[in-house]
Write a structure and sequence with these properties.
The protein is low in regular secondary structure. About 5% of the residues lie in helices and about 0% in strands. It has 1 helix and no strands.
């Protein structure tokens, strides 16, 4: 609710920046951020996010008002559904694109990248790669987070269950092409690409990798969902 008992969508009036021709909302002193309004940034070194409370942003520890925590004893994670977090049983339901017949995950505006969702690109001049963190792609300095095996002293990559293959991660059995003498992986209908399997390519612009999930290759599927991927 904004004013007059209604939200902006249903008629509440909001003040706009006094700068000539600007329609941004006022932040303070009659202007928007673009035209000089001062906002406090997170006190965490190198972070430019806006302060929420306690001098920090949400990423660095600020608590959102009315944030519900998991009802599981001793757990402080955010509630997802049924009063619990994902760790303690809440089902994390992913929304699918509203475009007719599309099963890709929603990115923004109710649609996937293929059907018009906008994704942030690297702020480096002339670069069109997706942002990984801090406004840049890996090529221009973004650091990727690599999950390591939780087994004490092990530095191998975690596969599933938080552990590496050596310490118990399950490995799927590899199916090979049914064509006589071929040891390539099955792609479709029991055969590999070489022996007739037809495959869709990634829907990301310019990518020729085979689509694995949601119309994307593994790399662009993870990027479209904001996940980190190995370099």
């Amino acid at each position: 609710m904004q004013n007059g008992g209604v939200c902006i969508k249903h008629g509440a009036k909001v003040k706009t920046c006094k700068h000539d021709g600007c329609t941004n909302n006022i932040i303070n002193r009659g202007v928007c951020i673009k035209h000089g309004a001062k906002v406090r940034t997170c006190s965490y070194e190198g972070c430019t996010n806006i302060v929420i409370n306690g001098g920090v942003c949400i990423k660095h520890g600020a608590k959102k008002k009315n944030r519900k925590t998991c009802s599981h004893n001793g757990c402080s994670n955010q509630v997802k559904s049924d009063g619990v977090c994902v760790k303690h049983g809440a089902k994390n339901v992913k929304r699918t694109c509203k475009h007719d017949g599309c099963t890709n995950n929603v990115i923004s505006g109710g649609v996937c990248v293929k059907h018009g969702a906008k994704v942030k690109t690297c702020k480096h001049d002339g670069c069109t790669n997706n942002v990984i963190n801090r406004g840049v792609c890996t090529k221009h300095g973004a650091k990727r987070v690599r999950k390591t095996c939780k087994h004490e002293g092990c530095t191998n990559n975690a596969q599933n269950g938080g552990v590496c293959i050596k310490h118990g991660a399950a490995v799927k059995k590899r199916k090979t092409c049914k064509h006589e003498g071929c040891t390539s992986n099955v792609v479709k209908d029991g055969v590999c690409v070489k022996h007739g399997a037809k495959m869709k390519t990634c829907s990301h612009s310019g990518c020729t990798n085979i689509a694995k999930k949601g119309g994307f290759c593994r790399r662009h599927y993870k990027l479209s969902n904001g996940e980190s991927v190995a370099v």
